[in-house]
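# nightly structure sweep
# worker-07 picked up a monomer target from the shared queue
# config: single-sequence mode, recycle default, output format = structure tokens
# input follows
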Amino acid sequence: MESITHTVWQRRGSCVLFDQKSLAPFIAADAVISLRQALSWTKGLPSSPPVPGRTIVISGLETVIEIMSPKEAEAYLAGKVRPLLIAIQNCWTDCGIVFGFSAHPKAFVETPLDEEILFRRRDRKAVRLSDGIWDGGATAHMRRLQRDGARPGEEVTIGYYVARIA
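# output follows
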């Protein structure tokens, strides 16, 4: 899987972001909405994004994944979240959608050959996160998001990004 360090994810596409340092500016800028509010858009998107700036952080997905069985969570991602992302990307082409997670980075597991991202819940059960959100075809275009670490030359993985899903 390729890695990117630029900030295109803030302006288009969708990502899962679990780095608190990277999420903090959006929280401070009041760019966070609930998953419930975002899902209400499936009945009709507002004419423009309801947050300042070009990045919408959606909170609550991690909780939903934690309380459902893995199969229910995967069906929810494919049946509710993916259609929402498709609608948003087709309407607001210059807007980045970020699903904010508070889980430790080690909860996100790249499968062999970097084909898929699994989310390992607190009960240690895995949910096929990237397949549910972005579908199998889009994961071929998935990128690992990285930022500079504390030490020179160090890169820290902050999440995963897909520019567009079909």
